Amino acid sequence: MSEYERAVILRLGRLRPKPPRGPGVIFVVPCIDDITVVDIRTRSFDLDRQEILTRDMVTISIDGVVYYSIKSPFDAMLQVFDPEEATEKLAMTTLRNVAGTHKLMDLLSSKEYLSNQIEGILYNSTEPWGVRVERVEIKEIFMPDQLKRALAVEQEAMREAKAKVAAAQGERDAVKALKEAADIMETNPIALQLRYLQTLNSICNDNTRSYVFPFPVDIVRKLMK
Q: What is the span of the domain harbouring residue 174?
């Protein structure tokens, strides 16, 4: 037998009380020993797409893949008729039961958490069968087209709302900064003149034909009086 195979031998219908035979050469008694070879390598099977009703009453479809291996050849042969079929059916029912307890947005945002939860349940349930579930992966969550459009509209509205909030916060910060600058300029008239010169320098360029000269506000006030 190969390195990745183990043999379980039944002699006259009774299990031989030794560890599984192999790898290497195995001697059996013809017509008396019944030998079953078990592959202990990691295998996988696909979870067919399951129709699931979520906690918030939304119908979706989920598929995935399960990786497993035979940990105990004795238990895999004596405790369950077909370990792979039993594990596959259990995985499908577990997927439906676990996903049905979550809301749609929780499933979309935390597929890894859902995979780990299903893996833990399968690991504990299949251990008496001699099966070790090594990994569970959720491949895709399918939604109706109408639901996809509704979610897209909702997300767009949320982005617009966040943009408006950010713009309002920017306006508030700008007004606060202008008020602080006005308070500083009010206490120091020279600062206001320097601001005039800075503004004039920023609006002037080589193609400008108009010239703007800042006029002191205090002189305007005296003339108005």
A: 150-224
